[in-house]
Design goal:
Blueprint: H1 2-7, E1 12-16, E2 22-27, H2 54-62, E3 72-77, E4 85-93, E5 100-106, H3 108-144, E6 149-153, E7 159-162, H4 164-170, H5 182-186, H6 191-204, E8 208-213, E9 220-230, E10 233-240, H7 248-251, H8 255-260, E11 266-270, E12 276-279, H9 281-287, H10 309-321, E13 323-332, E14 338-350, E15 353-362, H11 379-384, H12 391-413, H13 418-425, H14 429-439
Antiparallel strand pairs: 1-2, 1-5, 3-4, 4-5, 6-7, 6-10, 8-9, 9-10, 11-12, 11-15, 13-14, 14-15
């Protein structure tokens, strides 16, 4: 009855004599320690804990704990199968002859919460560092742009931010433009033209350009506006011509295109013929190229994927679906290196020409495992068949296994599109179907198999 009362308030109770030997034990959950606690009676407390906890137990036994608030220490018990079991013990004296009671609580839940907290904290610190790096890059690019750029809250019509070129051009008499309304920048006479420009940008979702006369200047100035949303808020980016001459090509360059050159992911733009039109610095880094001249004008298929088949598949998928996302393949560097990557892409039409843009991100891929029904034989297993199986059958079995793995990998890369998998493997569709039946490969295949 005493043991039941003690374990009602704690998970484990150890009755210790004056020498620290365990005289009795009471446990709330019978499977807390498994069966190892049955051999603890008669052993010293320090002999049933882990090596790093022995000093804690010795110090706890030598101290005189306060009866009102006994000190609690985390002690680890070694378990025969698995990690150590953490228990928080507090020691309470029972008799004048040195009998003591060690009351313990299971700390596994607390340890798991602490581990999750540490992992969350590390993830937050990583995200904060990445956010600060991104914000620094944005601020540097924002302030080094030659064009005056102004960020406006579309809901209130007030200026949120302005780069250095905009502040130098529009801030006069010590008045800051941040926080001011657009009417203070353009004047009441041009408010209608500015509202029409913003409405056109909102409706099209693209960059729209108009000429507006500023109160401080006599000539009309080209202004480009682009509308976007961020965390439930609407924003407008206004870009002004950098000089008196109208550089329409320069003002129509989107700010996002400028930022893409400093992104950590590789960016490549190709034409309808698959030839590279432009790449960013990260693409040059991953392909080990020295300059853009070494890649512009060459087929992207020389660098992306296997024999250029993936590029054709990606372009067809973009034409059919509008975009592709996280397509797994590899990138070939100039000096023979192979980098596993994930490719996302979309396309735009400009001047009646189709251009495809691809974002290429390095990815750590796990090699595809063979199916459980057909385990891949190691070289040792194959050589062990020598003398028991004819060489012709050993070679045939090895070839069948490799063929099956290649087919399964192609189906995985093309998301079970058999027509694209056949093109990737250099087979006709009839040959691929025959091999699928022979190897017993089945799955949810794309409906486009019958139309491609």
């Amino acid at each position: 009855m005493v043991a039941t009362m003690v374990t009602a308030a704690t998970d484990v109770a150890l009755l210790l004599d004056d020498s620290g030997t365990i005289a009795d034990i009471a446990i709330r959950e019978p499977d807390l320690f498994g069966d190892i606690e049955k051999g603890w009676i008669g052993k010293k407390f320090v002999d049933v804990v882990s090596s790093e906890s022995r000093q804690k137990v010795e110090r706890m036994l030598s101290e005189q704990p306060d009866r009102d608030s006994p000190a609690r220490r985390e002690i680890n018990h070694p378990m025969p199968h698995g990690a150590d079991l953490p228990i928080g013990y507090s020691l309470m004296p029972l008799t004048k002859h040195g009998m003591r009671l060690a009351l313990g609580r299971d700390l596994r839940t607390m340890a798991s919460l602490q581990q999750n907290l540490i992992e969350t904290q590390l993830a937050l610190e990583t995200d904060y560092a990445r956010l600060r790096s991104t914000e620094t890059q944005y601020r540097v690019l924002f302030d080094t742009a030659l064009e005056p750029i102004i960020l406006v809250d579309a809901g209130t019509g007030r200026i949120i931010d302005a780069n250095l070129a905009a502040r130098q051009r529009f801030e006069t008499d010590g008045k800051r433009i941040a926080g001011a309304g657009l009417a203070a920048l353009f004047g009441p006479a041009n408010q209608g033209a500015v509202d029409a420009l913003i409405a056109a940008a909102r409706n099209s979702g693209e960059s729209e350009t108009a000429s507006v006369t500023l109160p401080s200047e006599d000539k009309a100035v080209p202004v480009a506006a682009r509308f976007y949303r961020q965390h439930g808020s609407s924003r407008i980016i206004l870009r002004f011509s950098a000089g008196s001459l109208v550089d329409r090509d320069g003002i129509e360059r989107d700010l996002v295109a400028q930022l893409s050159h400093s992104l950590p992911d590789g960016i490549a733009v190709v034409g309808p013929d698959g030839l590279v039109q432009d790449v960013n610095e990260s693409f040059l880094d991953v392909t080990e190229l020295a300059s853009r001249n070494q890649v512009v004008g060459r087929p992207l298929g020389d660098f992306l994927g296997r024999r250029g088949v993936e590029l054709a598949i990606l372009m067809k998928a973009i034409d059919a679906e509008g975009f592709v996302r996280n397509f797994s393949t590899h990138l070939n560097s100039r000096y023979g290196g192979v980098v596993e990557v994930e490719v996302s892409g979309s396309a735009i039409t400009k001047n009646d020409q189709r251009f495809y843009g691809f974002s290429i991100r390095e990815a750590t891929r796990t090699p595809p495992r063979p199916a459980p029904s057909e385990p891949f034989r190691s070289a040792h297993d194959m050589t062990g068949l020598v003398g028991r199986v004819p060489l012709r059958e050993i070679v045939r079995e090895t070839a069948d296994i490799i063929e099956q793995l290649c087919i399964e990998a192609a189906l995985d890369l093309t998301r079970n599109n058999r027509a694209s998998a056949a093109e990737m493997l250099g087979l006709s569709r009839q040959s691929l179907y025959s091999k699928l039946r022979r190897h017993g490969i089945s799955g949810n295949f794309s409906e486009s198999d019958e139309t491609h």
